Amino acid sequence: MLRIGFRAHDLGSFNSAAELGQTVEKIRKESFIQLALNKVIPSARPWQEWDEEYISSLSSTLKEHGVSIAIIGCYINFIEPDEEKRSREIARFRKSLSLAKAFGCPYVGTETGNANPKGGFSLDTSDRKNLEIFRDGLSQIVDAAESYGSYVAIEAVSRVHTISSPERLSSILDEFRSDHLKVIFDPVNLIPWTGIPEYDGVPLKVPSEEAEGSWVRSILDIIGDRLAAIHCKDYYLNEDGTKVGNIPALTGCFRWKAFAEELHRREIDVPWLLENLNPKTVQNTTVTLEKY
Fold this sequence. Notes:
- It is globular, with a radius of gyration of 19 Å.
- It contains 11 helices and 10 strands.
- With 292 residues, the chain is an alpha/beta fold.
- α4 (83-98) runs parallel beside α6 and α7 (166-175) runs parallel beside α9 (209-223).
- The protein has helices spanning 17-27, 37-40, 52-64, 83-98, 100-103, 128-148, 166-175, 187-190, 209-223, 256-265, 282-290; strands at 4-7, 31-35, 67-73, 107-111, 151-155, 181-185, 227-232, 234-237, 243-247, 272-274.
């Protein structure tokens, strides 16, 4: 059976860990979450004031409601143009790595950065100089993960982030051989902006089973045994041929059942974290996915 959970901030914001735990428990007992603490519980202490006692108390409260943390969400901008801000981002990530045991989760997750501080597409993001800045920042936090016994989990995103293609992801994983560098695989995020190409290089509105299956297998081959978690949502192509990738799982055109079957075939068992979920239908979504 799939291990299904949620990106916690999709469920809303909460006044306490107990309130969050109660909400998750109502949807699914014995569940997993991705926790970006200050995003989910705005009243939580700022990261500079975190310590083991404080974080352990939050984690224990969640455990009382059957909620485990699968990913500590600490999404930083590796290539923030302001060097001082970039250094603070690295420091924030290192803090989460240092408290992984207190969180009860070894994985700290992040995307790979954007040259536009406001987000969105920027041609500068893919520039080689920014790729070097990313490598430098990644080296720092992988070293920190090794010293703390925790793990960095990076998430590639097509078009808008530094690591925006399977090829770039492969290059980074080849360069950083450390066991402390892992991957969060969000298939929808990594699908090309204009869709999955067919054998002749042309994408269809809904890709063929063969094209989608080949694309999935090629990326799982790249990730190998470094997979930490799956992000699960859905997408469709607009009439202009561009991807809309922020809709709930099972409401778009990605073949999640076939994806699950491929993971089973490879004997991969990692948490699935629902994103962009619809609170009104999330229980039905989890029940359907469990059957896969």
